[in-house]
Amino acid sequence: MTERIDLSDEPIHWELGSSLSYGEYLQLDKVLDAQKPLSYEHDETMFIIVHQTSELWMRLMLHELSAALACIRRDDLDPSFKMFGRISRVQTQLISTWDVLSTMTPFEYSAFRNALGRSSGFQSFQYRMLEFLLGNKHADMLAVHKRDPKAYAALERALEAPSLYDEVLRLLSRRGYGIPEDYLSRDFREPYHASKQVAGAWLGVYHNAEKDWDLYELAERLVDLDHNFQLWRCHHLKTVERIIGYKPGTGGTGGVSYLAKALELKFFPELWQIRTSM
Question: Which of 82, 161, 172, 274 is deepest in the core (most CB within 10 A)?
Fold first, then answer.
């Protein structure tokens, strides 16, 4: 027989008075009322929650990345390591969401897929903001956000601004490592291209780890970030392949073929290249 927990000695606030409740603080009335399936299919609710949850984790990731970027700009790296550590945990959560989505079979998805119309994760404002912030700049990607002027303007600003990696290279230059001048003041709207001189600078950081430990630690945090992003993309691809095979995506892309193009993309290429040289 299960006994009840004795609460007689617990000073629980049964009456909240004028204080906020848990639900009010988290605005759960809005959050839990945001799942609006367009069909009567059982799996659509799961599909919506998985994507909404991913967007919340991306919201936190952007929050932490923005703070880390501010630390890098002012050459105060120690606080950023806590932020990068949290980002790594967030990425673990993002990767695991694909495990939940992969419980849906092709038959179950096809039962409500037509209700989605042209809506697609390709149109995720926050995902595109993450890509721009991390350096995967592609001006053509702005077009899909034209119907949302606020999102379009924010992405345009991010497209034109130095990425996280651009700011890191500026920091290396300020610390005396040889970064080519045309990499410090380039057109930030354009995609980043790897440089032998930048690779040499990073080799210098690794060889001087005792003297510049914070730069050495920053390099490894960036590798973690890049590595986890690649895992996220890979899990996305395999989940899509499992559920829709090689059908086109709802957003008009080739689906698996489109996702495969991004698997080899690295945000911080020289940090991977120099591993062969060390």
Answer: 172
CA–CA separation, 155 and 246 (whole Å): 30
**CB count in 10 Å sphere of residue 185:** 10
Enter the pTM of the model. 0.93
Local structure of 71: helix, strand or coil: helix
Q: What is the pLDDT of residues 100-122, one digit of tens each?
A: 999 999 999 999 999 999 888 88
Q: Which of 130, 151, 9, 157 is nearest to 68 (CA)?
A: 130
Torsion of CA 248, 253, 257, 261, to 10 degrees: -170
Where helices occur in the chain by DSSP H, the ranges are 22-25, 28-31, 43-73, 78-101, 106-110, 125-134, 149-160, 164-174, 181-184, 196-207, 213-244, 256-261, 269-273
Compute the distance between CA of residue 133 and CA of residue 130 in angstroms, rounded to an integer.
5
